[in-house]
């Protein structure tokens, strides 16, 4: 699948060698979308687009599950994602956060278990960890119309952690 050009309802992108194998820990709503690398996403010619990729969650903020919600009670998480080509920061917010964790958010033990599974360790502070390869959908957007490329951000969407 190296260098194969995709044309779909998502994004036509020339891909590099992308591994399609992932742990199955996560599910996505867009199984029909082609996998792309993080470098493909970073170099894509439009600021706003949707993508599907296989990545590892290297780090998440906040690390303390009790601080996962903002003052309005919405999930707010920033993740560092990595593949063989690049690392990016991607956010997970509000309804997408609820969908991602898919459990009673008051059940801290279930959230800790899911986060540990995603990060590849029993405890988030455990070193070395071995984060599993997971699939996720990302969308790119801009925060400031006058500086679209400079304010470009990434958000995880239509992705969830599968039940054990």
Automatic annotation (TrEMBL):
Q: Read off the InterPro entries from this record.
A: POT1 (IPR028389), POT1A/B-like_OB (IPR057620)
Pfam families per UniProt: OB_POT1A
Name the source's superkingdom: Eukaryota
**Boundaries of each POT1A/B-like OB fold domain copy?**
22-147
The name under which this protein is listed is Protection of telomeres protein 1b-like
Organism per entry:
Camelina sativa (False flax)
